């Protein structure tokens, strides 16, 4: 799938493009892997700022399917069989011409879902592995992480709950057109603070504060806009109901390409990578670094309203098997 999508974008790039300055990306898609839900994670972002006294409001919806069933000797065990729906409210405000402030409020529902039968048939038809999911009851919820027989949390299916939220600040370092393709035309420094508003006993939060520093850059290789964001995230060890859990800081790298098909429509392909917050659990889905491929489009319905769609595929099994993302944004786009 990754090869097909990248090939399609390559051929699109052969078409002349006259819409420079109409960039809309990147796709604002998070990894919705439940064990990472309570920590800060690298989120694709642009170095562009909101003009002074202007705002941007967005509402996104993600639906993903996750299955993990592994036992690591007597140390760790993980059973995750669910579909997850995440609704997120985001607000950005241009405090000055050089500083944009942001607020993200995610609401999460973990549930049994309805796609198990479809996914089993899909995997069987195309000869894809089902990772033992066929041995579990169809459309039955399970979410349990244990260390040495002790629970991290006690998760339940159903309710839409507020998860750990975040405030952010983005400072412009450079905003000018560069003739050399290898120099960024826009560059910003971003800081994000995660606030422990989610219920840690239910698996919606860590009970602590996390800090993220990211360098956001935008390049132009006509007719493409390229986004490159390295990031460093400092995590606090989570509060738990029984188990003693410690986590490691995260290094992230985001690479995205945007083809501006028209003044209203952009096509995007992205890779989002970051290191695992866990170490030496013996469970591959927890220890493995995350690499998620994201493909989609952003379409401007009006001058102040846009629609974003993305399909996300896990390349390392430390993200949902798939994720469908939809986002509406209103304001200064």
CATH fold naming: Porin
Tally the beta strands.
15
CATH evolutionary superfamily = monomeric porin ompg
Kindly provide the name of the CATH class. Mainly Beta
Described by strand count, sense and barrel closure, the largest sheet is: 12 strands, antiparallel, barrel
Task: Output mean pLDDT.
Answer: 87
Number of DSSP helices?
3
The overall number of domains is: 1
- Overall geometry: globular
Helix share of residues?
A: under 10%
Rg value: 20 Å
Listing every helix as H and every strand as E from the N terminus to the C terminus, the arrangement reads HEEEHEEEEEEEEEHEEE
Oligomer: single chain
User: Poorly predicted ranges (pLDDT <50, ≥5 residues)?
Assistant: 8-16
CATH architecture: Beta Barrel
Distance between the termini: 30 Å
How much of the sequence lies in strands comes to over 45%
The helix/strand class is mainly beta
Strand order in the sheet with the most strands: 1-2-3-7-8-9-10-11-12-13-14-15
């Amino acid at each position: 799938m990754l090869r097909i999508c990248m090939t399609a974008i390559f051929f699109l790039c052969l078409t002349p493009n006259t819409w420079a300055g109409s960039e809309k990306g990147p796709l604002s898609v998070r990894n919705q892997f439940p064990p990472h839900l309570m920590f800060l994670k690298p989120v694709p972002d642009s170095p562009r700022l909101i003009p002074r006294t202007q705002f941007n409001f967005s509402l996104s919806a993600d639906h993903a399917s996750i299955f993990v069933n592994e036992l690591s000797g007597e140390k760790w065990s993980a059973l995750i069989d669910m579909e997850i729906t995440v609704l997120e409210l985001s607000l950005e405000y241009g405090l000055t011409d050089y500083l944009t402030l942001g607020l993200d409020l995610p609401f999460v529902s973990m549930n049994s879902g309805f796609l198990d039968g479809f996914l089993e048939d899909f995997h069987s038809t195309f000869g894809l592995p089902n990772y033992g999911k066929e041995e579990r009851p169809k459309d039955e919820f399970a979410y349990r992480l244990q260390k040495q027989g002790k629970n991290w949390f006690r998760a339940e299916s159903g309710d839409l709950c507020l998860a750990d939220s975040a405030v952010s600040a983005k400072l412009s370092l450079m905003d000018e057109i560069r003739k050399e393709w290898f120099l960024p035309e826009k560059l910003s420094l971003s800081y994000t603070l995660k606030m422990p508003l989610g219920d840690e006993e239910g698996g919606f939060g860590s009970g602590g504060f996390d800090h993220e520093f990211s360098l956001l850059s935008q390049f132009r290789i006509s007719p493409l806009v390229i986004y490159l964001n390295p990031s460093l995230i400092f995590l606090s060890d989570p509060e738990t109901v029984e188990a003693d859990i410690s986590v490691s800081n995260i290094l992230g790298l985001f690479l995205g390409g945007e083809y501006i098909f028209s003044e209203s429509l952009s096509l995007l392909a992205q890779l989002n990578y970051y290191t695992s917050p866990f170490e030496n659990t013996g469970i591959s889905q927890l220890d493995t670094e995350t690499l998620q491929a994201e493909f989609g489009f952003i379409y401007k319905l009006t001058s102040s309203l846009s629609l974003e769609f993305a399909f996300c595929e896990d390349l390392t099994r430390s993200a949902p098997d798939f994720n469908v993302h939809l986002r509406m944004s209103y304001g200064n786009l």
